[in-house]
């Protein structure tokens, strides 16, 4: 029995369906990331879980109880809003303590719990300040402390890092991870997080499982590694991973027991994977989209009979590696990620080989991964 | 109760909104409804105890209005009322025209004079700018009562009683500070780049004001103009005191006259009120967005 | 060492270019402002000063003699109750009315502000309707209410009679106890829209996520109102209070003019009305002007109270908590 369940959640707005029969099962102690582009319904889903938005149909079940119609404040969840929503006229201490005061907690207990929460996010020395005296990152942590002081069943976070600059974001990411771990260790799985973002790096670093959401539906729900290595459709494949996966539409044909992928006059021997994919598609030749990540695109000599000829357009340094853009004779653009010792120059023609182990085949019409 | 569920809460919200909306509408509109209805009732019907709350085809009449425009006393008035009618003998449309002319003139002056002033306050820093602005705006707080006495004496001295110019002058002085205030805060939210581009293109300051700023600032100007017009139109204290002859009176002064005189026909005075109400109300309905934005100090959305 | 002090001085002193530009801008700005200032000086400032001077002069047969009698007018007002009838009564009536009016207007318009801040079908209609009391000229409103309150055939009497609340028509405006409140009700009716829009704009600056956060923090409706809405609304509220106080001190005049003429007896003789009587009925312009000055002083005191009392004290209280 999962801890938090969303059953066929649907939300209709005049003119569009924001959430479309969404199902999600979350276990206690997990860090779930709802990942997707803007407008895909992930924030709406989060707000439905919180109770701030009411679903058109479907149920929300928390710890065995149906909370679909329960008031948001009675669901025992804490929320960190995208714009943080700190009370601008109260000191940080009061911002954190507000909930406790509303619950008529005795003064000494408030003091203890506020300081404990503040310590968890390292803002103990900021307690006397006002929100307008804090930096973005500090405000972020106050919002967190406000949620932490409650020991709720679920933490809901709506793009909390969106307003921070890149450096801060990286730092806060690690802090979130640590926080999640310490909450689960300290308090026996009391750190269940549902985190909404459009940043796939955040999703990959933070999530125990990531739900990729597109047009109001969960397209894939798996641990980050699986998302990366086994995207079950085109959307996930393109969305996850930086730099982006190469997606090449073409045809898959069987030729004397082995499968070939053809596009724009280029031929690629697919190996076993292609055969499997073909079987899955069940036709003589099939329209597919080949997906291969830049790090699985190798540049070598043209003498290799399996190599496909490409011209190097640009070479950009990418950390320790080199990010190479290539173009074929028939104007097919692909990218490759190679090591630092690149002897090649722009304008040269090289032989490109895809590692057949790490190639995916997607059905052109449905977008499904043929092998999953 | 039923506030324990979300759906309960939503239903409660709808109920509260509905009830309060009805209450507010009734509160705000019922007096206006009543005077309009009264103006179309025969005088005899207005003397019912209790009066007819809803308009009635039997007692409907346009007599009061026709009297106000033509001076023809309603056929069914009693002798006493007839005497009252003829004694008051005011034809309303000269006063409407007076009001319109004066209000229009005041509006034009406000824009001509307040526009550059507001612009300068918002764009430039100069010696005494904050103090001057504060002084200007604070003149709005002045009780017109304090000024009435000397104004009357002075106007008499300079023979400005019964002139439109006198009223136009006073009204302009009263409304200009508010115009400057509205426009300067509106300009503050207007991007400077357009004017700077015009200056680079060789426009003099005044030229750039007219050709570039004016077209862009239209919403703010409309709002300021509307406020000036409505203030000038609705003012009655100065209008009553500073006009003696009927021909020179504004609509509000006429109404004040009628109201403070001997008891005249209630139907007639209702009709006169309705006539006085129509122009500002029409403006309010047409320019509601600008007025609401102005009242909310939302011009340009700070 | 030396070079740094020289640099500092160079930075602090305004360059002659900047100075010149500033002077140019000032001259130019005043040129643009001149017409406005002219209007105000001629039609407001000048009469104002004249009025102040009148307060210190002696009058014969309604004409200022030019003879300065110092504070005599003021002293007369405060001491000779027969000479300046009911000054203290006026003060009392004015203060009661102002307090009651401001409280009523602010409370009602706050409630309405909450309503129009929500979006719901028909909110546009309500907003337009709210504009009407504001748009109606003061005198028209006075006539309207006068008719409603009419002693012989008025609709208010009619309604109350029909509902059985009274057995016979009441002469509301002639009743010593009711007259002021009748004016109060009519006054509040006209003034509410102005503040309603102002307060609604203030409400809209509070992001809805703050309310949602308060909801999640399990704050009750009352607590949310007093601990979140009200503090955040304070600056706008302050402005509304100041504006409404000034309005209340002055703008009831039309209503008194039409409906009661200061009566019955002294029940509605507010300070503005007293000034009007002194100046135009009794042509005692000197005393009238003196009273006008006193009225302005009262206004300034109120403004001072609001600006000083509501500001630093609130902040101190917040910090102390």
Task: Describe how the helices and strands are arranged.
The complex is a heterotrimer of chains A (372), B (302) and C (321).
Chain A: E1 4-13, E2 16-26, E3 31-35, H1 42-50, E4 57-62, E5 65-66, E6 77-80, H2 92-102, H3 107-120, H4 136-148, E7 154-158, H5 166-186, E8 193-197, H6 200-206, E9 209-214, E10 217-222, H7 224-229, H8 234-239, E11 246-255, E12 258-263, E13 266-269, H9 272-281, E14 285-292, E15 297-300, E16 308-318, E17 321-327, E18 333-338, E19 349-354, E20 359-363
Parallel strand pairs in A: 3-8, 3-9, 6-7, 7-8
Antiparallel strand pairs in A: 1-2, 1-4, 4-5, 9-10, 11-12, 11-14, 12-13, 14-20, 15-19, 16-17, 16-19, 17-18
Helix pairs in contact in A: 2-3, 2-4, 3-4
Chain B: H1 6-39, H2 43-46, H3 63-70, H4 79-88, H5 92-123, H6 129-138, H7 144-157, H8 164-188, H9 193-200, H10 205-216, H11 218-234, H12 237-242, H13 251-260, H14 266-286, H15 288-295
Chain C: H1 2-12, H2 16-55, E1 57-60, E2 63-68, H3 72-79, H4 87-117, H5 123-135, H6 138-148, H7 155-162, H8 179-204, H9 208-216, H10 221-250, H11 253-259, H12 271-281, H13 285-309, H14 312-320
Antiparallel strand pairs in C: 1-2
């Amino acid at each position: 029995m999962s801890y938090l369940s969303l059953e066929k959640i649907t939300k209709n707005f005049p003119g569009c369906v924001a959430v479309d029969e969404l199902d999600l099962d979350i276990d206690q102690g997990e860090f779930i990331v709802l990942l997707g582009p803007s407008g895909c319904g992930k924030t709406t889903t989060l707000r439905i879980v919180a109770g701030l938005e009411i679903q058109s149909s479907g149920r929300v079940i928390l710890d065995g109880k149906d909370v679909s119609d329960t008031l948001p404040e009675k669901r025992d969840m804490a929320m960190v809003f995208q714009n943080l929503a700190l009370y601008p006229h109260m000191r940080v201490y009061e911002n954190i303590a507000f909930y406790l005061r509303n619950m008529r907690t005795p003064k000494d207990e408030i003091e203890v719990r506020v300081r404990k929460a503040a310590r968890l996010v390292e803002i103990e020395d900021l307690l006397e300040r006002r929100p307008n005296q804090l930096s973005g990152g500090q405000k972020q942590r106050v919002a967190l402390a406000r949620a932490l002081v409650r020991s709720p069943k679920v933490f809901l976070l709506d793009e909390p890092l969106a307003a921070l600059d890149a450096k801060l974001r990286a730092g806060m990411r690690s802090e979130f991870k640590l926080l999640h771990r310490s909450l689960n260790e300290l308090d026996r799985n009391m750190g269940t997080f549902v985190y909404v973002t459009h940043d796939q790096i955040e999703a990959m670093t933070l999530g125990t499982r990531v739900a990729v959401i597109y047009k109001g539906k969960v397209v894939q729900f798996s641990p980050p590694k699986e998302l990366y290595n086994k995207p079950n459709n085109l959307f996930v494949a393109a969305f996850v991973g930086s730099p982006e996966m190469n997606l090449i539409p073409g045809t898959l044909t069987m030729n004397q027991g082995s499968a070939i992928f053809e596009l724009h006059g280029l031929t690629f021997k697919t190996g076993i994977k292609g055969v499997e994919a073909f079987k899955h598609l069940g036709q003589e030749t099939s329209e597919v989209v080949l997906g291969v990540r830049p790090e699985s695109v190798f540049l070598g000599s043209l003498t290799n009979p399996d190599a496909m000829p490409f011209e190097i357009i640009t070479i950009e340094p990418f950390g320790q590696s080199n990010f190479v853009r290539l173009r074929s004779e028939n104007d097919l653009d692909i990218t490759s990620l190679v090591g630092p010792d690149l002897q090649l120059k722009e304008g040269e023609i090289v032989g490109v080989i895809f590692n057949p182990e790490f190639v995916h085949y997607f059905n052109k019409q449905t977008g499904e991964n043929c092998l999953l | 109760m039923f506030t324990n569920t979300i759906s309960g809460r939503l239903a409660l919200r709808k109920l509260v909104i509905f009830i309060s909306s009805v209450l507010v509408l009734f509160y705000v509109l019922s007096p206006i409804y009543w005077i309009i209805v009264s103006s179309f009732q025969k005088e005899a019907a207005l003397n019912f105890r209790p009066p007819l709350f809803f308009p009635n085809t039997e007692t409907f009449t346009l007599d009061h209005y026709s009297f106000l425009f033509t001076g023809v006393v309603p056929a069914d008035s009693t002798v006493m009322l007839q005497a009252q009618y003829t004694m008051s003998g005011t034809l309303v449309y000269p006063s409407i025209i007076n009001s319109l002319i004066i209000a229009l003139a005041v509006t034009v002056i406000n824009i001509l004079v307040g526009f550059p002033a507001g612009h300068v306050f918002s764009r430039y820093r100069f010696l005494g700018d904050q103090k001057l602005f504060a002084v200007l705006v604070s003149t709005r707080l002045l009780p017109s009562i304090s000024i009435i006495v000397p104004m009357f004496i002075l106007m008499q001295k300079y023979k400005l009683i019964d002139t439109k110019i006198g009223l136009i002058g006073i009204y302009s002085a009263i409304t200009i500070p508010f115009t400057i205030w509205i426009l300067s805060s509106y300009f503050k939210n207007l991007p400077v780049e357009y004017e700077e581009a015009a200056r680079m293109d060789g426009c003099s300051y005044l030229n750039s004001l007219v050709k570039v700023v004016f077209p862009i600032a239209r919403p703010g100007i409309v709002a300021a103009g509307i406020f000036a017009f409505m203030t000038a139109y609705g003012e009655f204290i100065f209008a009553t005191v500073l006009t003696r002859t009927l021909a020179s009176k504004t609509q509000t002064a006429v109404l004040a006259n009628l109201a403070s005189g001997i008891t005249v026909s209630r139907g007639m005075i209702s009709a006169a009120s309705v006539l006085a109400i129509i122009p500002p109300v029409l403006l309010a309905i047409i320019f509601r967005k600008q007025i609401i934005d102005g009242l909310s100090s939302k011009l340009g959305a700070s | 060492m030396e070079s740094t002090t020289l640099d500092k001085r160079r930075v602090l002193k305004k360059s002659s270019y900047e100075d010149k530009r500033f002077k140019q801008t000032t001259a130019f700005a005043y040129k643009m402002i001149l017409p406005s200032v002219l209007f105000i000086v001629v039609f407001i400032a000048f009469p104002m000063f004249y009025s102040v001077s009148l307060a210190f002069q002696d009058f014969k047969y309604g004409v200022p003699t030019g003879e300065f009698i110092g504070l005599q007018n003021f002293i007369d007002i405060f001491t000779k109750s027969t000479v300046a009838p009911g000054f203290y009564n006026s003060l009392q009536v004015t203060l009661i009315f102002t307090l009651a009016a401001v409280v009523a207007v602010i409370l009602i318009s706050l409630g309405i502000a909450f309503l129009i801040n929500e979006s719901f079908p028909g909110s546009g209609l309500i907003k337009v309707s709210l504009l009407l009391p504001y748009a109606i000229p003061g005198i028209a409103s006075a006539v309207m209410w006068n008719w409603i309150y009419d002693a012989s055939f008025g609709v208010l009497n009619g309604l109350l009679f029909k509902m059985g609340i009274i057995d016979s028509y009441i002469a509301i405006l002639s009743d010593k106890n009711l007259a002021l409140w009748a004016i109060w009700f009519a006054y509040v009716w006209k003034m509410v829209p102005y503040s309603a829009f102002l307060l609604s704009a203030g409400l809209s600056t509070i992001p809805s996520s703050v309310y949602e956060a308060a909801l999640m923090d399990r704050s009750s409706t009352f607590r949310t109102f007093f601990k979140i809405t009200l503090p955040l609304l304070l600056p706008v509220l302050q402005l509304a209070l100041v504006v409404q106080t000034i309005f209340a001190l002055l703008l009831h005049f039309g209503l008194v003019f039409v409906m009661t003429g200061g009566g019955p007896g002294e029940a509605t003789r507010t300070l503005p009305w007293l000034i009007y009587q002194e100046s135009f009925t009794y042509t005692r312009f000197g005393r009238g002007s003196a009273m006008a000055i006193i009225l302005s002083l009262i206004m300034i005191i109120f403004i001072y109270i609001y600006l000083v009392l509501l500001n630093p004290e609130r902040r101190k209280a917040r910090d102390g908590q």
